[in-house]
Amino acid sequence: MSQNNKLLRIEELILYFNTTQGAVQAVDGVNLDLDSNRAVVILGESGCGKSSLAKAILRLLPRNAGNYSGRIYINGQDVMLFTEEEFRQNVRWTSISMVPQAAMNALNPVMRVGDQVAEPAMVHLGVNKTEAIAMAKKMFQHVGVPEDFISRYPFELSGGMRQRVAIAMALITSPNLIILDEPTSALDVLTQANIFNVLKRLKRELSISFILITHDIATSSELADDVAVMYAGQIVEMSDAKNFFKEPLHPYSKKLMASVPRLHGDKEPDFIVGHPPSLINLAPGCRFADRCPSRFEKCVQDPPIIEKDGRKVKCWLYS
Amino acid sequence: MVAVTKDNVAEMQAKKGTILLSIKDLRVWFELRRFGFGHAGYVKAVDGVTFDVHHGEAVAVVGESGCGKSSLMKTILGLYKPTKGDVVFDDRNLKDLDTKGKRWFHARVGYVQQDPYGALPPFMNVHRILEEPLIIGGVKSKEERDRRITKALEEVKMSPVDDFLPKFPHMLSGGQQQRIVIARAMIMEPKFLVADEPVSMLDASVRVEILKLLSGLQKTHNLSVIYITHDLATVSYFSERIFVMYAGNLVEKGKVRQILDTPLHPYTMALLTGTSEPDAKNAETFKEIPPGEPPSLVNPPTGCRFHPRCSKIIAGLCDVEEPQEFEPEPGHLVSCWLYK
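Predict the joint structure of the above. Result:
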């Protein structure tokens, strides 16, 4: 079966949160395929469910998680059938690791960064401390942190260095896939560019796949092979990077692209009128319809996912 | 209290092009102490900055975190005392202002903070947040205050106004919170606005909306604005001139198009290389970024402060002598020995 070749295949993934006002449909029927040594970018505004998608993939569910269903295949194996313990042993860190949002500020302040990076190796690979520290040193080389930083504390490192340490920590168990949640949004321009250089090199040298979660279209193009645009809990467009950055299909993607300020050229950036809908009690039909400049009668029905030249778009305009 | 009337605007129009704010060789140093006493050096956050802002002009100060741009801004706002040098606003030196003078100054300067949620008191509703500066500013009549609150909210496009007045900051979205911060900065009808990274905490699509709002206000009120940012891409839609700051110094000054199209300083060039534009080709190449990180401001490198990271270094000159300011093209100044 073709799905067995995929590193990661997600089918109809759903994650709702229970609140007093009703169920928040944070992830609502997401499909995603990822081959090895590819990077997919999940693009979306805050509150569109992109971080919840990452958590749903790694089954890191908050206490108020409600409906959680769908299929997640890793190398053809359905990990949704795993028990919590099997999932912890076989998936988290070993197959997929994650650099959560603001990880650089979440490092333990009273623990040397070397020990923090070594810890997952000791827990998940069962190596002893000396070996783990040796592995940590190797990871530091990969991400471009000087080796002698290993005995430093987080406060002795700059933001960019701390972010590299967080990436080293995700790398040490040699996973096939790393999920990066807004890895550079708190960093300066040059540091950002440096981190992306590191990620590109890792992808080439170690053949790792990435899921990059971000709202920043411009920097996302630094790593993307594929782009998935997320809106109100659903993926509305899935496209290869080359075509996406040339010409996005979905009206929402078009608007997002038009909102990027450019260094050169006179084209004024444009913004999207209105707000994303609340994810509680969503109205039927296309979720972007209220803000869409090209809406028509059909948009009151939920649009199907339409294939166009190998790209997928959830919009009636292309039917 | 000066309310903005038509005459007032006309007067401000007439002043267009003359200098409103003038900063001369400004130095802001923070003393470091060992164990609470005993001198241990200075953090030279701002070290010899000179520039002018004209009436009705928007300028941008661009630099990375730790380059001293926030210290510069806080000194302009009168929150820090300059160690050396002068800040002159409307022909009055901030150093010489007494309590009454400070009140006069603060009524003419607005401040838009970076993090809107942190900048708004969580226990006050929108009405109270906007009313407070008016009470402090001495607007006695309740009707007058309400009228100005309504006007300020309409100006930041928060309508219907009555819906928002009783709301607390946590009930608003990030973009709406930033609008309230802007409304608060504008409510005293200032002549001058300092905007410290006003959009860096916002989503990409909201960013443009807020920038357009700010630039609209700047034009209708003929405001002078200092826009502080690390993002060169947003600058061109907002300001007329750019000052690039590195390690406490301004290394390049010029018109927006001069800086973006023909940057002269190697640091500005690096910043432009580092800024991404959405293009799939980006993923195929590595970016050439200067190695290392901005220097410590306690012991900055001798000579040009960028020389340890610079690929165009002239040995024996850049690492010894501090570069002078050169003007290779009219209105475009650069502190770099390459242009001597």
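The mean pLDDT of chain B is 90.
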